[in-house]
Amino acid sequence: MQSNVVFTETFSLYDEPFTTAETIAEYAGVSKHAVNQLVRQYKNDLEEYGILAFEMRKLSGRGRPKKIYQLSEEQATLLITYLDNTPQVRAFKKKLVRQFYAMKTELLQRQLVRTSGKAGRREMTDAIKESSVLSDKWYVYSNFTKLLYKTALGFDVSKLREARGVNKKATPLDFLNKAELDALNKRQNQITTLIDLGMDYQAVKDVLSNQGVIYQTTLKIPEKARN
Fold it and tell me: Distance (Å, rounded) from C-alpha 57 to C-alpha 36?
């Protein structure tokens, strides 16, 4: 039996946590049909707390696609009140509350670190712009960005994007966990300081290369990305 009962659509720190009607059925010891029937019966009540989301999925990869309801914390809490208050349902309620709280706390921490890191990011950009030894600012900025990710996390931006499913229009910073963001912010500050000391790109790269990676990120890189 799966241990996670709360999920997010992607790894983005701006995702809204949710659970599914199937998860509720599994952990509450109720049939999927009964839970889905409750969702449909009390659809108007649930939609008072937001849009009732769902995805179409083929169960076990076969047959006709079925509608899998995705419920926010408020919607799931309300739906559970319509179930019999059995010991199994009560145990699931507690598990659900704990995981929603843990998930929201993790997302909030990532948002706070992300926000605090924006100042450091601007400082690095300003340091490059104001440097008297760095020419071709756009090219240098691109190189420093690659160096930042490589020495902070052990991967370049392109592989991070591919592993986390981030398209080119989205910033990969929104898809990093707290430890990764902390490492990135620390390295940003170091790069900014070295640029302010008058070092060019190669000199900064040499200094950071001797320090090693701050936080080695583990990514599931597709085979084609390794070639």
Answer: 14
Can you give the pTM of this predicted structure? 0.72
Return the bridge partners of 57, or none. Answer: 66
User: Tokens in use for 115?
Assistant: 């926000």
Q: Which of 190, 183, 186, 184 is nearest to 204 (CA)?
A: 190
Instruction: Write the CA distances from 129 to 125, 133, 136, 143, 194, integer angstroms.
Output: 6, 10, 10, 14, 14
How would you label 164-195 residue by residue, b for 16+ Cβ within 10 Å and e otherwise?
bebeeeeebbbbbebebbbbbbebbebbbebb
Q: Could you give the percent of the chain with pLDDT greater than 90?
A: 59
Choose among 57, 54, 69, 55: nearest CA to 24: 69
Largest CA distance in the chain: 71
Give the chain's end-to-end CA distance (angstroms, integer): 36
